[in-house]
Design brief:
single chain, mainly alpha, three-stranded antiparallel beta sheet, two-stranded antiparallel ribbon, 5 strands, 48% helix, globular
Length: 326
């Protein structure tokens, strides 16, 4: 067996290659972070054997370790598998015939948690500031939390009441609705962001991280207001790869903690999360008579089968008289 050299200890060369390949193939920042995390863990799982020398059984042992000892979900386990497939096919350029035989974890069918319209109102009433505005978009536009936080100013069209969702899950851009009721509040928020951006520029900052190679193509575009995040963070961070100090968007945990507290204060006895607003968006549209294909497009689902789960929630028990009431 081939021994792993010290290269894999602090900053593995293989890991750097994987990150560069992910960037060159335009994977999202979140996916790059997730894939490199799994590849790093896989390398360290068996330090004595180089990944290129590992067998199907060793890969399956790692995935079993995640499920049994780490108790990760099926979706997390499959994300780890996707990262390993990327490592072998794109980085190591090794196409083992058995790669396709590695079995994916089966998803358990779960009915999504959905707020009633009254519960949505109550939870939103116990939110304030930016978290409330973000959650209003999650419910009013059907966005995932990551999609809402990754919005740039240019992605919001007030005149047509539309939001363009860039680089979402599945990497297929889509257009969804912008609720009229939050437009005044959203405009007021963006006015504050604009003033903050102007002050940042005066201090020699105000740049942002542009996607792909746009920074090289348009050298000064990263200072334009329309490229700024709609929900910028209070503090600056440094991106070592781009050699850039900029305001990233607010952390997801900021919104998640606010939702948890609001659900508790609203006395809603459900495990409500940021995704519950998206589930509620789809379910309430169905209840309001919108067709499943329209909802599929708004949510960005590649298959209508994924969207069909909401028909079960919307129609669950509808019209059925309990024998106890008889």
């Amino acid at each position: 067996m081939k021994k792993i050299t010290s290269t894999f200890n602090s900053k593995p060369k293989l890991l750097d290659q994987a990150k560069l390949k992910l960037q060159s193939e335009r994977y999202s920042k979140k996916t790059i972070e997730a894939y490199t995390k799994w590849i790093r863990e896989f390398i360290l799982f068996d330090r004595e054997v180089h990944p290129k020398e590992r067998s199907k059984k060793q890969i399956e042992n790692y995935l079993s370790h995640l499920a049994i000892e780490r108790k990760v979900s099926a979706s997390t386990q499959n994300q780890a598998l996707a990262a390993l497939l990327f490592l072998y096919r794109k980085v190591l350029k090794t196409e083992f015939g058995w790669l396709d035989e590695v079995v994916k974890a089966k998803y358990s069918k779960r009915i999504p948690v959905v707020f009633t319209k009254h519960e949505v109102k109550e939870v939103l009433n116990h939110l304030e500031g930016v978290p409330k505005l973000v959650c209003s978009l999650l419910y009013g536009s059907g966005l995932r939390l990551g999609e809402a936080l990754n919005l740039r100013v240019k992605d919001i069209n007030f005149d047509s009441h539309q939001i363009i969702v860039r680089e979402p899950k599945g990497d297929k851009d889509r257009i969804t609705t912008l609720p009229s009721s939050i437009i005044p509040e959203l405009k007021q928020h963006l006015n504050k962001v604009f003033v903050q951006h102007k002050n940042d520029l005066k201090k020699g900052k105000g740049r942002t991280l542009l996607p792909y190679s746009l920074a090289k193509k348009y050298p000064n575009a990263d200072k334009d207001f329309f490229w700024q995040y709609v929900f910028p963070a209070d503090k600056f961070i440094k991106d070592k790869d781009a050699n850039l100090v900029y305001r990233y968007h607010i952390n997801e945990s900021t919104v998640q903690k606010s939702i948890k507290e609001a659900v508790k204060k609203a006395k809603v006895l459900k495990h409500g999360t940021s995704h519950t607003f998206r589930h509620s968006f789809a379910t309430h549209l169905l209840e309001n008579g919108y067709d499943i294909r329209t909802i599929q497009e708004l949510l960005g689902h590649s298959s209508v089968k994924t969207t069909m789960i909401y028909t079960h929630v919307a129609n669950m028990g509808a019209g059925i008289k309990s024998p106890l009431d008889g």
